[in-house]
Amino acid sequence: MEIHNLTVYCNNIEETTRFYNIVFKFNIIKEYQPVPDVKLAIIERDGMKIELLERIGAPKVVFSDFTTTLGFSTKYIKEDYEMIKNAGIKIKSELRNIGPKTSIFEIYDPNGFPIFIIQED
């Protein structure tokens, strides 16, 4: 078996799609509304597909600290941290070292979905 995609539930699909495009350079592959109360967008980058799903009329999506986390690696963590901070994106945890050659920080997407960015040298 192969991993097909990750589904991230969202409250506003347009805002969420824009966030992943601007911050992480995901491209929209497909947008559609298969039934009246569901909007879907498939985004992709480097072979990784994420399905964004908005349930119209459903209660707001709420994430906790004990949910799935999406992680990205980078070679330029200080620059990425400053870009994200300056863009006004909600920071969950500040840039910090978690080992002699590893730095990490955590943010939230527009729905409160936790994301970490890590640099391992």
Give an overview in words.
By secondary structure, the protein is α/β, with parallel strands linked by helices. It has two helices and eight strands. The strands form two sheets. It has a four-stranded mixed sheet, covered by helices on one side. The protein has a four-stranded mixed sheet with strand order 5-8-7-6. Strand 3 (about 40-45) and strand 4 (about 50-55) form a beta hairpin. The model has no long low-confidence stretch (mean pLDDT about 95).
Low-pLDDT runs of 5+ residues are none
Backbone CA Rg = 15 Å
Mean residue pLDDT: 93
Helicity range: 10-25%
Provide the β-strand percentage band: over 45%
Main beta sheet, described? 4 strands, mixed
* Rough outline: globular
Structural class: alpha/beta
Number of helices: 2
From the N-terminal CA to the C-terminal CA, the straight-line distance is: 31 Å
Strand order of the largest sheet: 1-4-3-2
What is the N-to-C order of secondary-structure elements (H for helix, E for strand)? EHEEEEHEEE
* Total beta-strand segments: 8
